[in-house]
Amino acid sequence: xxxxxxxxxxxxxxxxxxxxxxxxxxxxxxxxxxxxxxxxxxxxxxxxxxxxxxxxxxxxxxxxxxxxxxxxxxxxxxxxxxxxxxxxxxxxxxxxxxxxxxxxxxxxxxxxxxxxxxxxxxxxxxxxxxxxxxxxxxxxxxxxxxxxxxxxxxxxxxxxxxxxxxxxxxxxxxxxxxxxxxxxxxxxxxxxxxxxxxxxxxxxxxxxxxxxxxxxxxxxxxxxxxxxxxxxxxxxxxxxxxxxxxxxxxxxxxxxxxxxxxxxxxxxxxxxxxxxxx
Length: 278
Prior knowledge:
Layout: E1 11-12, E2 18-19, H1 33-39, E3 42-45, H2 48-57, H3 61-67, E4 72-76, H4 95-99, E5 108-112, H5 122-125, E6 134-138, E7 141-142, H6 144-151, E8 159-163, E9 166-167, E10 191-196, H7 203-208, E11 217-222, H8 228-238, E12 244-248, E13 262-266
Parallel strand pairs: 3-4, 4-5, 5-6, 6-8, 7-9, 8-10, 10-11, 11-12, 12-13
Antiparallel strand pairs: 1-2
């Protein structure tokens, strides 16, 4: 169902999805300022044409004012293919530079399906979302340097979710080292969730980076065996800050986690074995 449309040409779905669908019933914006602020509270962009529409309208005074109230921004890239006119349908690489300053209060940022070539301007421009506290990365294909640069772009980051992140080989054209990023010691995660079926080459960096010295909640869900040394390093780093742990049966050494209050174990069923019982 479509919400009342602002005077600009951009229509927003009630769930926050930007759309080019035209509403048949319009209402003057002046009569519903609070409704419009609520409408732009969460924005979900999942197609290039949605991004183009929003970019064209974002500097209109009304739309710019509403975008400044956005707290949740969810971005889905989609497949890097062309449309019927042969244009590239990717947009994520341009979004931080184009809209970062217009959405300064975003606190929850979700990036899905970022893969392939990433323009070098993408990484420094992410710092324009300086209010981000929670970052969700899902189904992204990145090299380790790119993943590090994304995470270290947000000095207020306290919650990080890495869902099926694929670590690729180094891509020299899109992984320029940016020295302006803050060191990991400025970022103290409180919540970390890792979900992966394979390819855990980023885990050692997470464990050794210093990001988790204040970690309170940790959730690890993996298909392949996670090296015990890596898990132990992360648990040792979290130390007495850790109060909740959800993991599989190879949970590591908890001797340093003296404040642990909740422990949830997932027991994976492997071929040739029956269910494991406590």
